[in-house]
Structures are given as C-alpha cells and as structure tokens.
Automatic annotation (TrEMBL):
It comes from Staphylotrichum longicolle. CDD domains: RPI_A. InterPro entries: NagB/RpiA_transferase-like (IPR037171), Ribose5P_isomerase_type_A (IPR004788). Belongs to the ribose 5-phosphate isomerase family. It comes from the Eukaryota. GO terms for biological process: D-ribose metabolic process; pentose-phosphate shunt, non-oxidative branch. This is Ribose-5-phosphate isomerase. Its EC number is 5.3.1.6. One of its GO terms (molecular function) is ribose-5-phosphate isomerase activity. SUPFAM superfamilies: D-ribose-5-phosphate isomerase (RpiA), lid domain (SSF75445), NagB/RpiA/CoA transferase-like (SSF100950). The keyword Cell cycle does not apply.
Length: 256
C-alpha cells in the first residue's frame, strides 16, 4: 500500500507542478504509475482539459486516456515543427542524474518517440525506482525492443558486450512464446553491471566494451542502438546525458 500511495502522491505532485492550464498537447506514458497521472489530470475537471489533447505511448496508454474521457490524439498527427508541451511517464529505475531504465512494460519504443517529441519530459516514479547508478535497483536488465528474426544475433552481441544472461522476455500465462509489443516486436532484457555516469572518474568508465567492465550510460547506449535488429533501447538520458533527439526530452524531474 505504501508503494501505491507513493506513486499516487508523486503523480498528483507532478501534474500540479508541470501541467500548465495553457498547455494543449500532453504525452501520456505507460505502466501503473501513469494511471495516477491520468487520474490527477481527470480530477482537474472537464473545463480544465477541454482544450488539451493527450498522446498515448501504446495500447494501455490509449485505453487510459479514453477511459478518463480525455481528448485522444496521436503522435503521428503532430504537425511538422510542433512539439508536445509536456509528457509524463514512469520508469523502472532512475539514477541521480535522471538517467532512466524504461521498458518494464514493453512500451519503450513509443514512449521514447513521445518523450523525444515533448518540450519537457516528466518522470514519475516511487521511491523503489531511485538508485545511485542504473542497474543497482532494477536487476532485470535493460529492455531492448528487437525485430524477432534478429533476436538470436542480438543476444550474441549482447553477450559479447558483457551482458550477463540476456534473454528474450517470455509471454505471460496464456501467451505461449515471447511477449509481442504493440509494434509487433520482441523484448530482450539485458542485464549489465551498474552503469556509470559520464562524469564518473572511475577508470572503467571507458565503456566496458567486451568485458564486464562498468560502462557509462552513454557509451553503452551508443553500442546497443547500433546492433543490427535493435529497434530501440530502454535507456533515457538525464541532465548530463546525450540528447536522444531534437526535443528537450531529457527528464526534468523525478518524483518519489
Ligand atoms: O515500460 C515503461 O517504461 C513504463 O514506464 C514502466 O516500466 C513503469 O512501470 P510502473 O509505473 O508500473 O512501475
């Protein structure tokens, strides 16, 4: 119960702090924490949200927006040169530079597209997600969205890059075979040694290529995204990280 209370408090605080009445385009992430973000937005009342459109990051996010009676719009319809005013989303782990591991809900590809389309990206997470370095609290590995036919090759390359026991995410009961994302892809979860910040002075910060050496978030991300068959990776960058894309989609705040 403490976790749910923490998620809800974080969500209501994030909406209070970052959803301005004049905003018209709002990204909505995926997972269980963002449920409370939508609850907080809906609680503002119809008049407050009537001029706002809400952009989903997958099937669950779309259902959340519709069920709350909010105006649903799609990132594929965002006019050229326009950005979302703000995007809210959860995370599986947040380090103290606001680098994120995302993808626990297998929605990371659309989540990153929406996040990268927003002027501000607000990460909403409960206390369990906070860790000094990525990979210390979240042990399941970095979620990576891959083309199914390339999965065996990607697993090989991840092993070579030092991942310990990367594996294709299995389906849940009732679904034989691998999880299939909203985009028809598979997810590989790739555990690595805890990732350093670019600023860490430790000697192993060269990127740990090929060994279990500890790499930096940026250096590892650079390698992962280049593996043939990888569609997107569940690493989002914080204050001092790389720009993921043109937008200022680096997380501006994380609430716990
Ligand atoms: O898939 C994701 O990145 C989601 O944001 C998710 O991992 C966060 O999930 P939670 O809010 O249910 O912990």
């Amino acid at each position: 119960q403490l976790v749910e209370t923490s998620k809800r408090l974080a969500a209501f605080q994030a909406v209070k702090d970052y959803l301005r009445p004049e905003y018209t385009r709002v990204g909505i992430g995926s997972g269980s924490t963002v449920v409370y973000v939508v609850e907080a937005i809906a609680a503002l009342g119809h008049d407050a949200t009537a001029n706002m459109s809400f952009y989903p990051t997958g099937a669950q996010s779309e259902e959340l927006i519709e069920a709350a009676g909010l105006n649903l719009q799609y990132i594929s319809k965002l006019p050229a040169g326009k950005q979302l005013d703000v995007a809210f989303d959860g995370a599986d782990e947040v380090d103290d530079d606001l680098n994120l591991i995302k993808g626990g809900g297998a929605c990371l590809w659309q989540e990153k597209i929406v996040a990268a389309s927003a002027k501000q990206f607000v990460c909403v997470a409960d206390f369990r997600k906070l860790a000094p370095r990525l990979g210390t609290a979240w042990k399941k590995g970095i979620p990576i969205e891959v083309l199914p036919m390339a999965a065996p090759r990607v697993l090989d390359e991840l092993q070579r890059l030092g991942s310990q026991n990367p594996r294709i995410r299995p389906g849940l009961p009732g679904k034989a075979g691998a999880i299939v994302t909203d985009n028809g892809m598979w997810i590989i979860d790739a555990p690595f040694a805890p990732l350093l910040h670019a600023k860490d002075s430790e000697s192993s910060a060269e990127g740990g290529s090929g060994s279990n050496g500890r790499g930096t978030v940026d250096a590892l991300a650079d390698r992962l995204i280049k593996i043939p068959g990888v569609a997107e990776i569940g690493l989002f960058f914080g204050k001092n990280g790389l720009e993921v894309a043109s937008g200022a989609q680096k997380p501006v705040a994380a609430y716990f």
